[in-house]
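Methods: example folding runs. The two proteins below were folded one after another, and each record is reproduced exactly as written to the output file, sequence line first and structure-token line second.
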Amino acid sequence: MKASFIALFPLLLVQTAFAQLGSITAPPDSPAPQRLTLAELQPRIPLIVGQPGVTFEFDEFKINQPGNYYLTADVTMAINIRANDVVIDLNGFTILFAPNSATRGIYANSTRQGVQVRNGNLSNCGIELLGPDPVVTDCLVENASGTGIDAPLGRVERCLVDGTGMGNNGLPLSGAGISATIVEDCIAQKTWLAGIMVTVTEFVNSPNGAIYHHQGADGGVRRCYGQCIGQDPDGKSGEVSGIFADKATVEDSAGISSEGSLGGTWNAPTAVIRGATVQNCKGSSEGGIGISGGSVQNCTGTCGNTDSGVGVGANSASECAGISITTTTASGQRSYGIRGNHIINCVGSGTSTGIYCTGITTYCQATRAGGGIAIQGIIVTGCTTLQGGTVGQIDPGYYDGVNLTAPPLQKFLGTL
């Protein structure tokens, strides 16, 4: 009996407490939830004349104040952004122009910062955001008469540019597929200038066209594909680079270019993929260099149909394969599978020379595809030829850093 009372004692305490508190019911006029909706936090403004910040002048929409704007239908007018911190959601719709009638469908000058464009299409026109920190995502740009997406100080992600021209002004800067500091998961194909270009900050005219000064050391190209066709219908040739990023890193990407620089009015550098560091990439050129970089790692570069081609050209190349197939070789010119200063664990095949190194070559294989020297270098160790030929050593001083200026004076280390 005593044990039963002890077991019931906690229950009696709880019942007594509820009896003292009384009935628990919600008080009248209880407060409503205080959380704001996303639309209230960041109101969206339809891109229609008369809406806050939207006007129409000189055949274009003008956005005059910060905000989050969106299209409600396809349009045939350009959008001029005249404020900072503007977000444009194309909402799946298209900005459409007649062929060759306009170079840009969305524009913001160099004083406008924090501009974003996303989720839509542009036909026969491009995007030009010249201020700091622009972002372009999930856009399709087709047949732009100038550059497809020009955001030199910004980021471009998950975009496709399909076809570009020279632009109405005819400047060499027009005609790139994508120009930005960071480009990721993008495709730029059938472009007149480089498919993908990292931050061209300055250019000056020269008798042969243009001299570019590239910046963008903090930039990069990742998981992209760039294709340059090189020539327009008038026979003028472009940069002929799939990916052009001299001061930046190029990773996990591929590029291809045509032979546009051969015989064109503007003879520009022609490496398919160019970068300060190039990793895990493939480049195929019809005129020039397959892959060019300061440091090139785990890459494959091929080149053909040029008087002096290089599969892979780098200061340092490792774990690479380079092939140069030259149909004709002009006097004094050479075709190299791989050319560089420090080459390790690589395979090279060139019409005249498989691997040409001005420094140390170690643990490499090469073929003398055109009957020339398989491997040439100042120091050659642990190397072999794949199809016979010679492994030679160059006398210091005969290579001028650009071209072979005289027949090589070789000290043969042996014939394999």
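Second run, written to the same file directly after the first:
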Amino acid sequence: MATDKNNLIVYCEYEDGKVADVSLELLTKGRALADKLGIKLEAVVAGDNLKDIENQIFPYGVDKVYKFEDKHLYPYTSLPHSSILINLFKEIQPQIAFMGATSIGRDLGPRVSSALHSGLTADCTSLEIGDHKDPKTGKEYKNLLYQIRPAFGGNIVATIVNPDNRPQMATVREGVMKKEIKNPDYKGEVVNLDVNKYTCPEDYVVEVIDRHIEKSKVNLKGSPVIVAGGYGVGSKENFDLLTKFADVLGGEVGASRAAVDAGWVDHDRQIGQTGVTVRPKLYIACGISGQIQHIAGMQDSSIIISINSDPDAPINAIADYVITGKMEDVLPKLIKYYKKNSK
């Protein structure tokens, strides 16, 4: 049964001397939720050479960080990191636990939630605190974590609650939450823990001898201008027009899942719930209908322009400007006039 006095904890990924952005985003959201619940925000990090980890974490309003430092914990392997979280969570019994929906979080989250019988909602797009009444028993619950995400192919937005089991666990993709320092001088408590008390020798049967990580050549998150195409673009050849337009504007080309599934563009350019979340200054959506899952990945763009032959396309409802027409007709004119006016 839940003991709802306990704290909110975030598993922080640590690579090349830096805490991952997604972890800092979750700390920002975690701080806001912890304040609402009147509880403390905690963090856990496991790895090697964690010398200034607290200086990176504390400014986000972290009250306590649990440090597990050992050369065997880096690079990440499933078993020791899982054992650390499972045994730590049994000990401190957090009310809520977050981690990034990264390759690490996708591996770690299900292992931990399964061992603790806690449940887990993956790829949340929103996290809130609210009350819940069980329709069968009539029992009322206060201050549950609302784990919100698109479901059924993006046709609905589902709110998922975990009334009784703890921790209430959720993963979130990078970029979905905003990263915001609470106070540069915020100071919390550091708890150094003995790795051997939380793991066993069998956890280290797998050793990473060498690894190579290819850096992404696409920088959607850092681009101030994104020209994105959907299924309405019509063909791989038509995407060349988007590329030309993006080059003129000094931006990047993005895509909806439908365009990626059609094979017109690579997956690393996919924007949305199953792709990247972006917040550019200008987002130009070409032939994108605007399914919930895509909108979840770009709705915080400063200015949204929709170019669509369908005047009733759902994306038009969130667009600042709507151009009704065929992309093949509209883009060449935009390119022409932009070049003319930018001389």
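Comment on the second run: The longest strand covers residues 140-151.
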